[in-house]
Amino acid sequence: MEQGVSRSLRLAHKWAAIAVAAPLLIVIATGIFLQVRKPVEWIQPASERGTATFQPQVTQDQVLEAVRAVPRMEVDGWDDLLLTDYRPRKGIIKVRTPGHLETQVDATTGAVIKTGQRWNDIVMKIHDGSAFGGRLWLFLPAGIGALFLTLSGIYLGGVATARRWRLRRHSQRHADRGKLRSPQTLSQFCFKYHYWVALVVMIPWLIVVSAGLVLQLRHEIPGIEPPYKQGISTVPVIDYQQVLDIAKTIPELEVEGWSDIWRVYTHPANGIVEIRTKIGFGAQLDAASGEILDVYARAGDFWEDLHEGIFGRHRLNGMQIFGERKIDLSKWVFLPVNVIALLLWFTGIVVALRSTVGKPRPVSAPAVARVEPLVDTGAAALPLVMLEPDLGTVSASSNGRSDWDPEALQREKQAMFERRRAASRRLARQRTSEGSDAAGVGIVTKTPKDKLSRRARNRAGWRRRTG
């Protein structure tokens, strides 16, 4: 039963890997690119610090005027801006355009700090499939397939590990018989390292895939990333001090000062100001009147951090999950895991294709009779004749075959030898127990067929047919 389940799951694992190969490669490659966006200035401009923290003194109009002074931004009014992102802890305001350009403005003085291109925004759209409209119909099934590959791979890896331990104990009992050596093919090499590498990274990779699948449905799952409301005007009027005063009046946010607010986003196209707190709650205000449009628990930031390997930075719906201390494993654990996932993709596809496309039909090895030394049973001796594969023929005929496994052939040979020897001994004991007065070595008195057991008759018939 276990072998049947393993074989069916292995086939499903192989075909699922082939089906999601292309989108999964895009996801892994762009994921590695996004994982290094913060250390690499070219991918995403590093966040600078303003002259003061938690003290925003500039108005919305002053931010717009500061960005207008940057020719590269090509901004004339609020319609040319995608959003503004105020970060109280750093004391800066990041202003972004639809062309993915970014200017950082000092939140206290209004001075322009730096301007750069945000390539990570472009790659992020490719990463989730929204760049070409394939987020739900292509990349979501690919994410489900990746989760299935991870879970089935963990099961198959556990079964294979248990089998390896059993075979290792068996080989230690018969270590004197030696092992058959043969050059490894490309499929065997890839399968071997695919197996061992997968065992090392299976837990963090399961976290990456699971959190990524949740983020893929962030707009469809309530509480992950709520939809934006629409304000009465596309020109923001309320300043940051008014935003803080309104946030203090919302009990769900639990805001007492700027230190309790994580970010403040202004979306001119929607006419709203979005407040995000450190406890995982958010609120949307009308950017012109300051009216509270929506208050919600927002878990998107938590799942993004979990997807990258950052623990303890945010709360989930007000609950502390991993403690107050921030644990950042994105660079030293999850980045190598993503790189290794690319290796797993390559080795897995090689094994799947080599065992599927152009696979030759298995060639049966001819049986070669081999006569073992006579088994002394006391009254008589029985020559032990067994059939074993012709190793030279098998080696020649299986050149290039992806299923050729020298160790498995050696184990089958050993098991067949033990079965044949045990059967010969039982038959010899049964015949001698019937009484034999024959003398000489290698001559055994035949017992009538009706006095032989059914198993012994089958064995004798098999030896006559095979010579």
Can you describe this structure?
This protein has helices spanning 2-19, 21-35, 60-68, 119-128, 135-173, 186-216, 240-248, 300-308, 330-354, 391-397, 406-433, 454-466; strands spanning 83-87, 92-96, 101-106, 112-117, 261-267, 272-277, 281-286, 292-297, 310-311, 327-328, 367-371, 375-376, 381-382, 385-389. By secondary structure, the protein is an alpha+beta fold. The strands form four sheets. Strands 4-3-2-1-5-6-7-8 form an eight-stranded antiparallel β-sheet, with helices on one face. β12 and β13 (381-382) form a beta hairpin. α1 (2-19) packs across α9 (330-354) and α2 (21-35) runs antiparallel to α9. The longest helix is centred in the N-terminal third of the chain and has 39 residues, at 135-173. The chain is elongated and about 110 Å long.
Q: Can you write the helix and strand succession as a string?
A: HHHEEEEHHHHEEEEHEEHEEEEHHH
Instruction: Tell me the distance between the termini.
Output: 35 Å
Please identify the structural class as seen in this structure: alpha+beta
Largest sheet: 8 strands, antiparallel
Rg, nearest Å: 35 Å
What is the topology, as strand order, of the major beta sheet?
Answer: 4-3-2-1-5-6-7-8
Helix content: 40-55%
Give the beta-strand count: 14
Q: What fraction strand?
A: 5-15%
- What is the approximate shape? elongated
Which runs of at least 5 residues are low in confidence (pLDDT < 50)? 176-180, 365-403, 436-447
Our count of helices gives 12
What is the residue-averaged pLDDT? 82
